[in-house]
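Exam prep: given the inputs below (a chain plus guanosine-5'-triphosphate), describe the expected output before reading on.
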Amino acid sequence: MDQVFIYVTGTAGSGKTYLTKALAEWFDLKKLDHYVVNLDPGADFVPYSADLDVREWFTLEDIMNRYNVGPNGAQIIGADLVSTLVDDIKEEIELSSSEYVIIDTPGQLELFTLRESSRILINALNPERSVMVYLFDPVVSKTPSGFLSILFMASSAIFRLEIPQVLALSKADILTEGELERVVEWSQDPESLYDSLNLERKTLNLELFLMLREAGFFRPLIPVSAVTGYGIEDIYDAIQEIFYGGDDLERILF
Ligand SMILES: Nc1nc2c(ncn2[C@@H]2O[C@H](COP(=O)(O)OP(=O)(O)OP(=O)(O)O)[C@@H](O)[C@H]2O)c(=O)[nH]1
Ligand SMILES: [Mg+2]
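Solution:
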């Protein structure tokens, strides 16, 4: 049986770690065998029990001391060091034989989406059976230009990692019902976003909008809350749809 690798990604503080916990709890509840990986060497605390934790090899502090760099430099070195551990990581995960592997990625999005080490890891584990859940920060997403910027970042992650993506609106519990509906509508009906952007009167935004729409980057956002558990099952369903729904992966990746 092929394992499914779920990479939880998104900008700093968007809720990756708590979504990882919520997904793991949901899999527990449904008695679905799963394995949880923390790839963030800078995490002070993780609220789930990690089956594999990069901090077993090194922490951000170790790197700062050893290479005499600050926290940002250490994050970059940490991301690159992960690529040297790929064989160990792969071996441990394969030993588990869990069907689902949930991977919590480092704080800053660009560390995971832009560095070559992520590609090395994804390719070593199984690029054909990988999906990224991309979290939209709710506070940024509730303005039209904020939404567009995040969609742009999510789209750039597809270019870099070349794996299918499930878009989720995190911390849905902190938005009002009206805000939630509006943001979800923007993702489902690009014209409604165009109208909202038009009110902001920023030409560059409209250009970016047209480019993303033409390229087919608009996909429905799944609202989720790691606090209430809302939407977690929808994420699972979307992942199932990608791997078992009979859709051609080429089509999902354009
Ligand atoms: N209200 C609410 N708060 C949340 C939710 N998910 C996460 N948070 C809070 O948001 C903050 C950041 O959540 P994390 O899960 O640590 O975010 P992250 O993306 O892993 O953060 P970094 O790894 O530091 O980039 C924490 O204080 C969480 O308690 C949610 O669904 N609802
Ligand atoms: Mg985190």
